[in-house]
Structures are given as structure tokens and as C-alpha cells.
Design a protein that fits this description.
Blueprint: E1 12-15, H1 22-29, E2 34-37, H2 41-58, H3 82-93, E3 97-100, H4 103-117, H5 126-136, E4 141-142, E5 145-147, H6 156-166, E6 171-174, E7 177-180, H7 181-187, H8 199-204, H9 208-240
Parallel strand pairs: 1-2
Antiparallel strand pairs: 3-5, 4-6, 6-7
Length: 242
Amino acid sequence: MVSMTTGISLGVLELDGRPLSLEQINLVANGSMDAAIASAARPRIAASQAVVERIVASNETAYGINTGFGKMSDVRIGPGDLQQLQRNLVRSHASGLGEPLEAAEVRAMLLLRANVLAKGLSGVRYQLIELLVALLNPRVHPVIPAKGSVGASGDLAPLAHLALVLIGEGEVFFEGDRMPAQAGLAKAGLTPLVLEAKEGLALLNGTQAMAAVGGLAMLRALRLNYLFDLAGAMALESLLVT
């Protein structure tokens, strides 16, 4: 990808679950850098997914995999309804309000969520993380309302709107137009997924909305502070001129 500001390609950021710097997040958020899943992350992702598959196959009871959520955690869900359980979780929490987040914040959310899942501790398939990254690089941006997070309990509503797009629901911005997710994915040559056991829960349980908005705001504040220092130094220099 070529930077929108400099016209220079800045390469690819590989994601393996390690912390990202504010500068790295900003480079992907502003479209100056692509992202990819590091090859070293793939075995960890597969091993984590295998744990979930083993639980499902053994019919062992495990929260969020074959049970309800929250107060419904004691309700057992049958094997034939596990996909519907995850789909319903995403749909039920996609209840945000207000104007959509800016593209930079949405891109930062996609990046941070993909990086967290690439750590290989969430039990999701490689294909799911791959689709998150695939939304970044051709610039298919989920429409995520700016209001609706419950803070310390997680960015459930914003992340639900992000997750909706992975299953071909909700809306996206693509090539300057707002459209149904299914149409946007098709135009970008992408195919939605059917969520498997635990994947809806893994997508929603996180704080990537506040991290994206807060991280980019922090970087802008730091840059503004530097400019203020520079302007002050230049002003003092000019006052010393005789």
C-alpha cells in the first residue's frame, strides 16, 4: 500500500500478538502500511482452536462454547445450535448509536483485534483473523457507531458491529460509498464466514474500540505537544534577535 500522505510504501506490519506501538497503529490506521499475520502465530492459533474443537467433540460443558452467556451460563446449548449461538450473540450486541467512527479509528480497531487474536489464546480459526486483516488492506471499513460501549466490561457494541461484517451483515464503507456488508465484501472479493464455537464471544470480548480511539488521540496529543514546544522555542529565538 502507498501512503496517502507521502506517496511512499511503508511495507507490511506482521501481527503475532505482541504489543504494538502508537506509531505502528497510526501507520496502519492512516493507510500508510498493510498488515499481515506472522507465520509464527499460525501454530499457536491452530493449537488454541484445537482446544475448542476438543471440548465440542467431547461434549464437555464450557462457558461460551456450549452454554449461554451471563445469567444464562447454566443453560446448555446443543451441538446443532452452536453456530446460531455465536451469530445471535453478535446480532444482539450490535446496538450502537450515533455517527460512525472515523476510518482511522475503525482501521485501528481492526488491527488491534486481529493482533490480539493472533496471540493464539482465543480459540478462533486462522480464517477469521485472516478476514479481519483482509478488511484492512483493501480498505473495507465496517460502519461502527461512535456510542454504545460499556467501558470496563468491554467494547461489546462497537466490536459487535465490527463482527457483523465478518458474517456478511451490517454495513461497510468501501471506495467512498456506504453499502450493505454483503455487497462491500463481494466488491472486494471477500467471502463472509459462518462463526464456529466461541468465535462470536472472542470477537466481542475486548477493549479495542477504546484502545483505538484513545491511542490515536494520545499520539495526536503528543505530536501537538511537540509542536507547541517547537513553536515556543522558535518564538524565544526570535525575541533574542537584535
